[in-house]
Write a structure and sequence with these properties.
The protein is α+β, with helices and mostly antiparallel strands and 378 residues long. It has one domain. It contains 10 helices and 16 strands. Strands 5, 6, 7, 8, 9, 10, 13, 14, 15 and 16 form a 10-stranded mixed β-sheet that branches. Strands 2-3-1-4 form a 4-stranded antiparallel β-sheet, covered by helices on one side. Strands 11-12 form a two-stranded antiparallel sheet. It binds fructose -6-phosphate and magnesium ion (MG) (2 copies). The site of fructose -6-phosphate has 9 residues, from helix 8.
Length: 378
């Protein structure tokens, strides 16, 4: 079997009525650029998806990761969507395209990228996780559960190809350094790092079975570090390969039954529960949220995407939209209870993030205004 690269590149380039949803014309614009990309042989196949105001381009090709042609195609697709957004004066039009011009690679220019290269197995199921109103470390807890917690993933106990565990690559997002930790033996070391979601994010996970290779990858770009100021949230995406020596689809989804608190809700400055939703239900309608998570399943076959459609054409794929199912209603209800509860704290901690994590703050101005007015306390 040939090697295939799966590139998920995402950006928020504008939306309707706040940070809510991209306009259908924007989605069409990305499709038309990627269709040209297929004709030119830059990518083999693609699927467009979205979560809240973020558009995800899921592309297959044989050019490897960080390929300048593939990244340029994604950049052009987002530019074209941003043009549509600008024409309609949509909100935040072009917001994640931080550079004037493309220069070799989207990394560092604004869009987020999760890319993986692997040898296709006999059957290659993949799940794309798309999140809105949160940041890359929001995946730390669910990924640790999926790949290192036998109480979530029974496969770690009873599948011989998973029994030896997985290798986690984590990044210090503030210093741009990476580290690999092998589990289960390094589990407690891993948790010591990734429990701090202000600093560490899981980037990649590898199977210890050499015939499998990479198992998962997360986009870990920090937009505000790139731009040097608040420019919107670095809403993350992840790709996970499933089944046959890797966690089953159900083991991958199960951690989302816990609506864990993640950072980045409203103004990138609040804690809120992860709310599992379908693509169509991913509009952030409650206090710009709560932070959404969408899970889409599809198959890769000879470098092409196979969804639920009967006659697959490039770009026309229909994924399995896992959280659309009514079995997730109970989780959504619990997430809303948590959301309503935490909102009752208003601008008080722990509803808002600590000062250094706020995406923007008036605090320095207020401190300045009162700097001469403080007196010795008695
Ligand atoms: C955007 C987001 C939103 C905005 C908020 C304020 O991803 O999380 O909650 O931060 O709507 O947006 P501005 O500052 O653009 O008015
Ligand atoms: Mg946004
Ligand atoms: Mg967003």
């Amino acid at each position: 079997m040939a090697k295939v690269t799966l590139s998920l590149i995402k950006a928020d380039v504008g939306s309707v009525a706040g940070h809510t949803a991209p306009h259908p014309k924007m989605i069409e614009a990305t499709k038309s650029i990627l269709r040209e990309g297929v004709q030119k042989g830059i990518v083999e196949d693609f699927m467009i998806a979205r979560c809240g105001d973020d558009i995800s381009l899921i592309m297959t090709h044989d050019k490897g990761e960080n390929n300048s042609q593939v990244h340029k195609l994604a950049w052009d697709a987002f530019m074209s969507a941003a043009e549509e957004a600008k024409k309609m004066h949509l909100y935040g039009a072009g917001q994640d395209l931080l550079a004037e011009a493309f220069s070799g690679n989207v990394r560092g220019l604004g869009p987020g990228a999760a890319e993986m290269t692997f040898e296709e197995r006999k059957s290659e199921p993949v799940i794309a996780l798309l999140a809105d109103k949160t940041e890359p470390s929001a995946f730390n807890l669910p990924l640790a559960r999926i790949f290192a917690d036998p109480f979530t993933t029974t496969g770690l106990v009873i599948d011989t190809r998973m029994h030896n565990g997985f290798i986690f690559e984590i990044v210090n997002v503030k210093e741009n350094k990476k580290l690999r930790i092998s589990t289960p033996e390094g589990l407690h070391d891993l948790l010591a790092f990734i429990g701090d979601i202000t600093k560490y994010a899981i980037k990649r996970i590898f199977s210890k079975d050499s015939s499998i290779g990479i198992a998962a990858v997360v986009s870990t770009e920090k937009l505000s570090f790139i731009a040097g100021k608040y420019v919107g949230k670095d809403d993350p995406v992840a790709l996970i390969r499933a089944q046959s020596g890797l966690p089953a689809a159900g083991e991958i989804l199960q951690p989302f039954a816990f609506p864990a608190l993640v950072s980045g809700w409203m103004r990138g400055s609040h804690w809120g529960p992860f709310y599992p939703s379908s693509q169509d239900d991913s509009n952030p309608t409650f206090f710009d949220g709560p932070p959404r998570i969408v899970a889409l399943g599809f198959q890769i076959r000879d470098g092409k995407i196979q969804g639920l459609e009967t006659d697959p054409k490039p770009g026309e794929h229909i994924p399995v939209d896992y959280f659309k199912d009514s079995s997730w209603d109970a989780v959504r209800r619990q997430a809303m209870e948590v959301a309503i509860y935490i909102r009752r704290h208003g601008p008080f901690m722990p509803a808002i993030l600590p000062p250094e994590e706020l995406e923007y703050t008036t605090l320095p101005e207020i401190q300045k205004k009162f700097e001469d007015k403080w007196e010795e306390a008695d």
